[in-house]
User: Fold this.
Amino acid sequence: MDDLAWKPITELSRLVAAKEVSPVEVVQAYLDRIDALDGKLKAFIIVCRDEALAAAKNAEAAVMGGQALGPLHGIPIGVKDLYATKGIRTTGGSKILADWVPDEDATVVARLKEAGAIVLGKLNMHEFAYGPEGLNIHFGNAWNPWDAHTQRMPGGSSSGSGVAVAAGLCAGALGSDTGGSIRIPAALCGLTGLKPTYGRASRAGVLPLAWSMDHVGPMTRTAADAAFLLGPMAGYDPKDPTTSVLPVPDYRAALTGEVKGLRVGLLRAFFLESAGMVLRQAVEQAVKRLEEQGARVEEVALESAAHVSGASFAIVSAEALAYHEEWMKTRPDDYGAEVRDRLRLGAFVSATQYVKAQRARQLIRNEVDALLASHDVLIAPATPIVAPPVGQTEVVVEGERHDVRSSLIRLTRPFNLSGHPACAVPCGFTVAGLPIGMQIIGRPFDEATVLRVADAYQRITDWHTRRPPFGQAPAPP
Amino acid sequence: MDRRSVRALRRLAWLQGYDWTDEDLEGLLPLVEKSLELIERLDTLPLRDVEPAVQYRML
Assistant:
């Protein structure tokens, strides 16, 4: 049964449809692992045991009754606890919303359920998604499963999503990404994490951090699994005016394994140069593997990258405080101190500064577009560092001290500003066994090419198949 | 009044309806200074002819 928990969605889906495995067996396999491991891992805020088993029995009956099945029929997923779920508490990782029970599902949750997915539970996260470390003062810190003995950051804000998928507690998960919150935990937990183009998947029913920077997307063990989840998630939604009417391509069909002739731009200045030597070498080696498969690689530079932090800060902090204004006045003590302080910073950004940041954002977007006019994808490290221990606030990279928080979001945030699709994939491990991630960035609404490159890379490497030591070694005390 | 002081922050916060203590604001001041420096660096970008990346769409 334990093996079921490690099977990719692509295979689970085939096994369920072929009646070789029952959805009940699949759900039970994950519930057993959650029972055994999640007391320490703290990936889940809520486990929907009864609902998931009931859904699995219905799914089993549908299979046995010969009914038409969706592409995700009987596939158990975890949902970051900022997606509204009908009849199930949705906390946003906060005390403020600890008892909120939505009366309808977020659009993408509803769409995944229509495609046959089964929601196993709601996943831990940084409070209100406002932090890349993935820590949570209210529900406990999720434990990165790649170190069984030292509690390391899973990365955030979608920390529970990263931990649950990496530890085999669900087949795939939903995350959200405002500055890197899908790609950072994907990188730190050795996963594939896709931030689609802004407007590709609906944010309706998802608690906002910063409306103009928020993206929703899948976190999975393989790029092929991400393609499986993205298909049903993507597309126009009248409840989210930013969603595009562009047709949704068949992402699974795009996974040809072929990269011959593909033009790859390797972002060295600011990106590779920020990363520690081991991470830099891992990404360079990954690009070399693509080159061996026929991709044409050249180094490129995003000149405006140094301005990303100023523009992002102004936009995110102003939008975040605007959303939280009422609670910040009526219930300030119900926030964790660190998130409350970060929200307060929004009060010191003026309207003209906000607009200036949005103008800078346009400039940065234009520059990314220009690079992608002559390249099919860009490649960069996903993070400049691997998972730091919980509590560490500074990190030394190549002899220089850096703030952990700023380091974690440094390389992902440019593409929240620009809105381009970006996918993190594992591309190596440190000697200590911690995962290293790279990101593949594509043209707007060209997730198909991004996923094709990610999948092609995974066909010639095995980083994504490794399993973390947590649950295999004796559990920490 | 110093543009970046606890007193200045208190006034700005108060104008928006927040009554934060001096202790709160003292803790925030270094973060505010650092953040505003980052925003001021945007002035070095050629933004004269660039419209903001926000849209209002009727349809």
Notes: Chain A is about 35% helix and 15% strand. Chain A has a mean pLDDT of 96.
